[in-house]
Amino acid sequence: MPYLGKDWRSPGWSWKKTDDGWKRIIFYGHELEDDNKEIDLKALCSDNKENVFVGEVCELATAKRKKDLYNNNTKSQFVFTDKWIYVQKGSTKERHGYCTLGEALNRLDFSSAIQDLSRFNYVAKLFQLIARSQLRNLSGAAQKNYFNILEKIVRKVLDDHYNPRLVKDLLQDLSSTLHSLAIHVGRCVLVGNVNIWLCRLKTIHEWKQQLNNLHIPKQICNGVSFKELPLHTQNNILCKLSDACDIINLGQATPTLQSLSESSILWKKLCHFHFSDKQFCKNLVLSKSDHVDWKLMYFTLRKHYPMREQYGDTLHFCKHCSILFWQDCGHPCTAIDPDSCLMPISPQHFIELFQF
């Protein structure tokens, strides 16, 4: 005779036949991993009444103890290394509850993602958007995990000197948001003691000072240097840059690069990369000779429209399975043509995915 739980898909409870009839086995603590052991409830009741759990209460208490163990032994409250998660937006007969932004931040392995240079900019940009508008919507565990990963991001920049400008902007936005919430709003929206947030503000200020004092040593190269390359090669390298700040900073290195960085063709390609023709027509900027000033056009369009984002690796969303995953890791898809169901997720789209 089968004994099923409330969920008809589950394998059912564990039962044991006794002289008095069938009795359900109730697990406790480490006994959860052994289906053949039974707990003596009378002995537990005599020692500590808090150790007695029945049915689902026992399972919830054991899960909580595991989380507390992770919290005591690790810096982050929850330890997950998932490469994909199921995005649940509402309750159904098969699934109850929904997936929040904080849960996605906890479960997806962002700590390992920042070690990959192809994902670093993506994670940093996502954290910047969260700092601007979504920090108050995170749970306490998600906020703790957020700052732990942020510390690793700052440490990687200090060690590897990789993209410090992006992380400086991230810390600046985060500092402004925290100052506004901690000073003006306070306990209404912040999870935890206000003094903890003031300490975090102090830590962010220290990170900003460390990045401002960051000195990138000059690399010794025994081969061909950049300035020794042919002009067309240098120009091709400049055309591969998608950030105007990088082009301007590179143009300050040598007079030759200064001339190449002012090329109208270079700024025209940059405008066409980030903006559409329709946007050009609304904000056409002409010089005195009635020619388009593409450099001025670029900075004018940047004030009115968002620029195109480009990342080495991004999260993808499967519309068939409703699973969010890293592209190179894949996910268990059941569709006949999985590639037709994939959709790249930008950092802004990632946040919108969890807005209900």
From TrEMBL:
Keyword terms, alphabetized: Nucleus, Ubl conjugation pathway
Entry annotated with the keyword Cell inner membrane: no
Subcellular location: Nucleus
Pathway per the UniProt entry: Protein modification; protein ubiquitination
Top-level taxon in the UniProt lineage: Eukaryota
GO BP terms in the entry: protein ubiquitination
Protein name from the UniProt record: F-box only protein 25
Main location: nucleus
Record-linked InterPro entries: F-box-like_dom_sf, FBX25/32
Protein's organism: Gymnodraco acuticeps
GO cellular component: cytoplasm; nucleus; SCF ubiquitin ligase complex
Function according to Swiss-Prot or TrEMBL: Substrate-recognition component of the SCF (SKP1-CUL1-F-box protein)-type E3 ubiquitin ligase complex. May play a role in accumulation of expanded polyglutamine (polyQ) protein huntingtin (HTT).
